[in-house]
Protein: Nucleoside diphosphate kinase
Organism: Geobacter hydrogenophilus
Amino acid sequence: MERTFAIIKPDAVERNIVGKVLEKVEAAGFRIVGMKKIQLSKKEAEGFYYVHSERPFFGDLCSFMSRSPVVVLALERESAIAKWREVMGATNPANADAGTIRKEFGLSIEENTVHGSDSPESAAFEIPYFFSQLELL
Ligand code: CMP
């Protein structure tokens, strides 16, 4: 069993489609081992996305991620990291395969509805960034 970290981003929470995203999570065989709705500060968003700090889109990304609440998730299944990336689809919704979350719900490369860890190292940083051991059930 492997764990990955996911975020349902502000664009999805604002449009009241959290349930539709969670349906896809469960349909893909993930167990939700942690889940909470939180409001990120700009600083917390910057800390989470520190690997992108030199990228031109970093400022806009952190403003977007802190503009309204998000739902953070720790998800478990076999090959969770790769499977969640498959279920999300390509970063840019325009390039995402049919049936993926980003193709169905994404608005733009920034407002792309969901985040997912891209490697075991990222998951090992991202899950404890938001969840304590006691919150993972
Ligand atoms: P995410 O998986 O959350 O990881 C970094 C995010 O940066 C990415 O999804 C996109 O929403 C956002 N982003 C904004 N602009 C770009 C870009 N030009 N290339 C890649 N990611 C971008």
In short: Residues 52, 57, 61, 91, 109-110, 112, 115 surround adenosine-3',5'-cyclic-monophosphate (CB under 6 Å). The radius of gyration is 14 Å. The helical segments are 10-14, 18-27, 42-48, 58-65, 80-88, 101-105, 120-130.
